[in-house]
Amino acid sequence: MAIKKYYADKNNTITNAFRANLQTRGTGANMGLSDVLETFSIYAQQSSGSTELERILIEFPVSQITTDRASNIIPASGSVSFYLNMYNARSNQTLPRELNLVVLPISQSWQEGTGLDMEEYKDVTKGNVGSNWINAGQGDPWTREGGDYLTSSYSQIFPIGNEDLEIDITPLVEDWIAGTITNYGIGVHLTSSQEAYFSSSADTGSQLINLVGATETYYTKKFFGRGTEFFFSKPTIQARWDSSIKDDRGNFYASSSLVPAVDNTRTLYLYNVIGGRLRNIPAVGTGEIYVKVYTSASAGVDLTPTVITGGYDSLGIYSASFVLDTTASTVYDRWYSSGLTSVYHTGTFDVKQYAASTHNPYGNLVTALTNLRSVYTTSETARFRFYEREKDWSPTIYTVATTVTDTLVNESASYQVHRIIDDLVVIPYNTGSDRGTQMSFDVSGNYFDLEIDLLEPGYSYGIKIAYYNETVNSYVEQSHEWKFRVEEV
């Protein structure tokens, strides 16, 4: 599975807005337990030139991300992207169009608090635990009221105002992991040109100097907070990476001038499964492994005069990529230690030959999910394996021994998961640079692994898949879907 979510463990909304009487500001208010987060800017409501702002504070468990990287659950820097996801909370209030929200790292620690009131701002901390517009926590004022932030920032524009927030914050998360920036979370609020204009020789406390600010109102943008009852609407940092395994053992082609050079390079995998568990080969560990290809299991003709250098992929899995120029139909791969002194494994694979055609071979495909169960639990990581063939394909089967036909392998396949009751897409196709929903393949066909705890228990879900079609230069979704239910452990 190449998508992992880290849920916010602190959040709050702080404000200097007026209460309904337009006399008293809510600068002491805390909204740390509200299930909604809000940001806005109001200009000249109380008087000409008055300003009212509201900002969001939010923090994530970066220590868990660091632990997962150390445990190889997520890959190293440069091989994974981190996205901040916050989800729009619908309301009957005006949505500001062309809203531009910025995300900035907070530069000091702060307390979440237990306030709830987002209307009258009556849940004032009054020295109790919790952050507000003036204080980051009990007896700990902000250096500048409204929060202390670093200058590095990220942003997103909301053309209509009801969009979700999704921003790639990979550099910031990597800085948190490395410790070059201390994780105090992030602030989310309007960019300075949209927060209200205020001119003065100094901040007044209730109003902040903003000489580039707006003289119009941007009211109001709401997101669901970490306390929301809606499982898929909680703010998260989502790690995405391409974890797909492209094992060509069942889809190996000999080198040909009919295809680009890059397509002649094929990859084989070695899975060191001992006692039902993947384990690193002790003498190799995470280092290099070596491969040679022969015409027989006991060696025979050496088809790779130059030793192929392979490497570590993940726990107990090693791979090697190479070009093979041969007319042999079946060959044997032998995996060696350094110096070719020990053979760890001897495998075999069939070699196909590319052939030109006078017609467009793309046709309709039929796909079956061969190991689907009706129910999965949130404690498991499930593997979904697919069988694929061309529609109306009718092979001639001569004996019982050949009735099991080979599956087609689709080298570019992706999946999507949606909730059945309302068709909410909970894991969308991720076919961009992150390729988070890219399907793996091996000698038995396409498959993907899914951490079931990404899905809310008590509901049924559907899987859809899409194959890349070079004829139309895009992914084409297949018509069938497969359904299953998720339950608690």
Question: What is the compact description of this entry?
Answer:
The chain is 4% helix and 38% strand. The protein has 489 residues and is mainly beta.
Could you explain how this protein is built, in words?
The protein has 489 residues and is mainly beta. Helix content is 4%, strand content 38%. It is built from three helices and 33 strands.
Topology:
Blueprint: E1 3-7, E2 10-15, E3 36-43, E4 51-59, H1 62-70, E5 81-86, E6 99-105, E7 135-137, E8 140-141, E9 154-158, E10 165-168, H2 170-178, E11 186-190, E12 218-224, E13 236-240, E14 252-253, H3 261-264, E15 266-271, E16 273-274, E17 277-278, E18 289-296, E19 299-302, E20 308-314, E21 317-322, E22 330-336, E23 343-352, E24 365-369, E25 375-377, E26 381-390, E27 413-419, E28 425-427, E29 440-442, E30 445-451, E31 459-469, E32 474-477, E33 482-487
Parallel strand pairs: 14-23, 25-33
Antiparallel strand pairs: 1-13, 2-4, 3-4, 3-12, 4-11, 5-10, 5-13, 6-9, 6-11, 7-8, 15-21, 16-17, 18-19, 18-20, 18-22, 20-21, 22-23, 24-26, 26-30, 27-28, 27-31, 29-30, 31-32, 31-33
